[in-house]
Write a structure and sequence with these properties.
The chain has about 80 residues and is of the alpha+beta class. It has a domain of about 50 residues: Pemi-like Protein 1, Chain: D (Ribbon), CATH 2.10.260. It has one helix and four strands; from the N terminus they run ββββα. The strands form two sheets. Strands 1-2 form a two-stranded antiparallel ribbon. It is elongated, with a radius of gyration of 20 Å. The N and C termini lie far apart (about 55 Å).
């Protein structure tokens, strides 16, 4: 795993990304997950999301998911 340098730019903290991690375009989507920060290309966000789904096995939703009994509720 590589590291990147942090620096202050005005009143914001910024990250200097190594060349092989640089994004095209002018902005990225950002999400904090616990102590981690995830950056994704803004213009290809769905592409990145769909590519991530390929990591699930074909039997991901098969088997007993133990979701309990469906509740029947009065209509509003």
């Amino acid at each position: 795993m590589q590291s990147a340098k942090l620096f202050i730019n005005g009143s914001s903290q910024a990250v200097r990304l190594p060349k092989e991690f640089q994004f095209s375009g002018n902005d990225v989507l950002i999400k904090k997950v616990g102590e981690a920060v995830i950056l994704m290309p803004h213009e290809k966000s769905w592409e990145v999301f769909l590519h991530g789904l390929e990591n699930f096995s074909s039997d991901y939703l098969e088997g007993n998911r133990n979701q309990g009994i469906e509740q029947i509720r009065e209509e509003i």
